[in-house]
Each structure stands twice: as structure tokens, then as C-alpha cells.
């Protein structure tokens, strides 16, 4: 059984939400993708910071 | 020469003091009264609480920094404010009580021309039976990560629990350990800190190879997961605008963390809590290790008039936080507006007194008010995180400097409404350069403005969130950046609040 499916079965609360599959989980620590996200998140944060000062 | 006194040298007060001194120069005096000898980057206490950082990584001594900046530093706590002076003198003053070794308990009067209250929260452990020790401090039944010392202790207890779990696994006894993390009262804020702690524990338990022996549960006063005291937020993901509820629930389910929400923890004992739910039912939950955030209150400053009469009600709201230019009579939830939130943080009675950071009294909640059929309020109080605390501190410094330099009549009061300000939050979900994760979020504005942004109350172009390693890198960089800035190292003013 896939890991996400195991947790769906653990409780009703878990069953009614979304759980990332292996691809989404891998992307969270994939260095190349995360370097890209690092740049994007920083830009977004800088925009919010500049709008707030 | 004017004298500005800042009570509280935390995130907000330190920002006010350092900018005010920079802008006022040698001509005017800036005094900081704060009981702590060390500055603490509080967000990183989470990592101290799981043994990933030591206390010395998150604190540094204040005295040399203030000496370098030319700030008069008093290691003391402010006790009372006397805005109209005393018999025979019109000079405003505060009374402070030393917390420095050698002079502890000695009191002193300090006169001021301008006063900023940045005393942050009182960690009100005693509001819940058994959460405190009856003397206003953390009791023996649970741990806390609110101060660096608390976090050091929390880590010791956590590691003991991991050891028990490891032994049970080795011996094959099957004895499981139970961890409970969340809020210790129906009126708590700071759910974000508890959120970070629970996922850091989960991450560490996995690394220690004992996750399968530990049940981890969340308990909180939020009406839904992902409320965070801000009424939740909606973000754009994959072409959808979705509620933070969905994302929070997803993370808890993915990491196998069960949850109880809409809960007021009414009693804490060794290994057990009692709580009331929004439907009025009473329940119990057992634990082997629990970290429950206490509710916050004002630090208990008093106000006195010239004749010695108590004017605390004029200066402070009933929760002990200082009254500022907020609309405190907005009434029912349906009438709440973004414009109820303060802009200048000036006290309405005394124009030379301001409050910054957690010390100011918010006009009302941000989340929808809720209570159980028994009349117990169960709702998060508004968060005032690091970024708003810093921005407000800087705006107040600006206003006071203008008042000192241009005179009260010509001064421009600087605005920093939380309904017109965003916040960038990075909530750690586990530390590690290659396997760490954090939820990086921005929200704009912090207080929803349903007139400007009908529907979600926020600008969904600037309100987003995602979880990943990049968030962890940002959190780690912020740790170093903010400590660097607080130490006033070269270029510190270039680092935003
Ligand atoms: C565990 C934890 C994790 C957190 N993580 C994050 C995060 O990741 N991101 C984020 O943005 N925010 C986070 N926060 C919130 C953040 O720490 C606060 O928003 C911020 O510290 C508020 O700043 P402040 O100056 O108002 O209060 P504080 O920083 O608490 O400063 C108040 C100061 O006043 C002093 N004081 C108290 N009483 C007196 C008195 N009588 N006289 C004089 N001085 C007094 C105190 O000693 C203290 O130095 C976290 C909070 C906690 C507890």
C-alpha cells in the first residue's frame, strides 16, 4: 500500500483531508526544485515586506 | 535634551531603542529598561527545545550592544507609570525595580519625556489550574518553549521520553509514549510556536528511530486547524484559492499527528489534562510529555496619578495590555472593521506614551469569537508575531523622534496598522540542511480587510504558503540575520524587520 493510503486509514479526520503522494513529498526536499522555490519564496516575501514598511 | 524610555528589550523594544538612538544621536537620551541581561531570538527556542540548538546559539548579552550604541541600559523591570508626576513635580516618571545581581529588588524613579511600552506578554501559566506553579511560573506537569531556559528543560525531558521509547522498542515491551502539544487555555495565542514544536518533535522522533513507539497529538483552542489566531487564511495553490485548514489538516494527516480542536484546557495534572470542547462536553487526555502554550496577558504594570490614585484603567485594557489608538468599542463580530486596528500606537490619554509589539491592547480578536454552551470562550487571541512587532517598534521610534526633533505640534505620526501590513512567517516543521522542512507563508494583510478584499479579506496575490526544504533554509538564514541585526553589526539597518 502507498504511504499516503496507510495514513488515510488511520482515522476519520485523516480520511477527510488530502495527503501528498510520493512525487509531492520528494519535491519538498529535491535540491534543484527547492533552490528554485527558495528564489521564488524570497522574492514573494520581499514584496510583502516592502508593501508593509 | 529629551529622554525616551523604552520598557522592554525584546523584539519590538530593541527595534524602537536602536532606531531611536540612531536617529536621535548624542543630543537626546535613550534608556532601555528590561529585566533580561540577554537578548533572545525567541523563534529559535523551538530548535533548542528539540536539542538542535543550544541556549547560547539563541541569546547574546545586551550590555555590550547597548554600550556600543550609546543606549542607557537598566537591567530592571518597570513597575509603575506616573504620567502626571507626583506631589511637587509635574515630571512624568516610571518606577523600576532592579533585576541585576547585587542590586536585585532596589527601586528607582526614572523621569521621561517619552515612554514606549514594549514589555511583551506575561506568560500567564496560572490562568489554567496545574499549568502554572501558583507563583506565576511554569509548573511541573508540562514543559514550555517560550523562553530559552524553558526550551533547554523541554529538550531534556523530550530526550528522556525518546530514551524510554527506545528501551521499550529494544525490550519489545510495546509500551508506547504519548506526546501532547498545543494550547493550555481557551484564550491562547501563539499557536504557530506550538505548531513548529510538534512537527520538530515528530521529525526528531523519526531521526531517533522511535517514531513508531510514540503517539503525537495536537490540542488547540482554534475552531479549525490552520486558524492560527488570524481566522485562517486563503492562499492560491495549483490554480485554486484554498483555506489554510486544508493544508494544515493535510500536514497533520501526512505526519500522523492526531488533533483535538476547539478545546479549552481547564486543568492540568501530572500526565493528564481536562478540557472542554466548543460543544460544552468535558474530556480528559493523558500524556507522558506535554508542551502547552500559556495564555498571554499584560505584564501587570500599574498607572498612578499625581495624587497617588490608581489610573491603571486609563492606561491599560482589562487584559493588562496598553490602550492605544484602536477602536475598543466596535461591538459584535459583524461590526468589526479593519479600521478598528491601531495605526500610531499612541495612548489616547497621554500623547507621549506609546505601546509597541505584544504590549498594545488589540481592539478585538481576529478569529471569529466562539464560546461553549457553558459560556467558556474558546477562541485564539490575535497573534502579534515578530515582523509586525518589529515594524510597529520602528514606526513608534520614527514618531517619537519626529516629536522630539520637530515638536509635538509639527510631528508626523508614523502609521503601521496590522490591517495594512503583511507578515512573512516561516514555521519550521523539522531541522536539517537536506531533510528539513518549513511552511513558508506570507499573509497580506495580517488583519483581514473585507471592505478592500471582499471574500477572503486578504489579497490572494500576496497570501501564499508552501512547505519544503527552501522554507527551512530561509528560517535558518533568518535566525542568523536577525541575531546579526540585533547585535547592531555593520549594515544592520539594511535588514528589514
Ligand atoms: C516559542 C515561540 C516561537 C515563536 N516563533 C515565531 C516565529 O517563528 N516568527 C515570528 O514572527 N514570531 C514568532 N514568535 C512570536 C515572537 O516571539 C513575538 O511576536 C515577539 O517576540 C514579540 O515581540 P515583543 O517585543 O512584543 O515581546 P518580547 O519579544 O516578548 O519582548 C518583551 C520584553 O519585555 C521585557 N519585559 C517584561 N516585563 C517587563 C517589565 N515589567 N518592564 C520592562 N521590561 C519587561 C521582557 O523581558 C522582554 O525582553 C514566537 C514566539 C514564541 C513564544
Which features characterize this protein?
heterodimer, A: 53 residues, mainly alpha, elongated, B: 497 residues, FAD/NAD(P)-binding domain, binds flavin-adenine dinucleotide
Please give the radius of gyration of chain B in angstroms: 23 Å
Main sheet attributes: strand count, strand direction, barrel closure of chain A? none
Strand content of chain A: under 5%
Given as residue ranges, the uncertain stretches of chain B (5+ residues, pLDDT < 50) are: none
Distinct compounds present: flavin-adenine dinucleotide
Number of DSSP strand runs of chain A = 0
- Categorize the overall geometry of chain A: elongated
CATH class of the domain at 3-122 and 299-418 in chain B: Alpha Beta
- Strand-residue proportion of chain B: 15-25%
Overview of this protein structure:
The complex is a heterodimer of chains A (53) and B (497). Chain A has one domain (3-52). Helix content of chain A is 74%, strand content 0%. Chain A contains four helices and no strands. In chain A, 17% of the residues are buried. In chain B, strands 1, 2, 5, 6, 7, 8, 20 and 21 form an eight-stranded mixed sheet that branches. Chain B has a four-stranded parallel sheet with strand order 14-11-10-18. In chain B, strands 15-16-17 form a three-stranded antiparallel sheet, with no helix packed on it. Chain B has a domain at 3-122 and 299-418: FAD/NAD(P)-binding domain (3-Layer(bba) Sandwich). The longest helix of chain B has 24 residues, at 148-171. In chain B, 54% of the residues are buried. With 497 residues, chain B is α/β, with parallel strands linked by helices. Helix content of chain B is 25%, strand content 24%. Chain B is globular and about 75 Å long. Chain A binds chain B through residues 4, 7-8, 10-11, 13-14, 16-20, 25, 27-29, 31, 34-35, 37-38, 41-42, 44-45, 47-49, 51-53, and chain B through 246, 249-250, 252-254, 256, 258-259, 387, 391, 421-424, 434-435, 437, 440, 442-444, 462, 464, 466-471, 473-474, 496-497. Flavin-adenine dinucleotide (FAD) is lined by residues 7-13, 33-36, 42-43, 45-46, 77-78, 118-120, 145-146, 190, 192-193, 299, 301, 357-359, 384-387, 389, 425 of chain B.
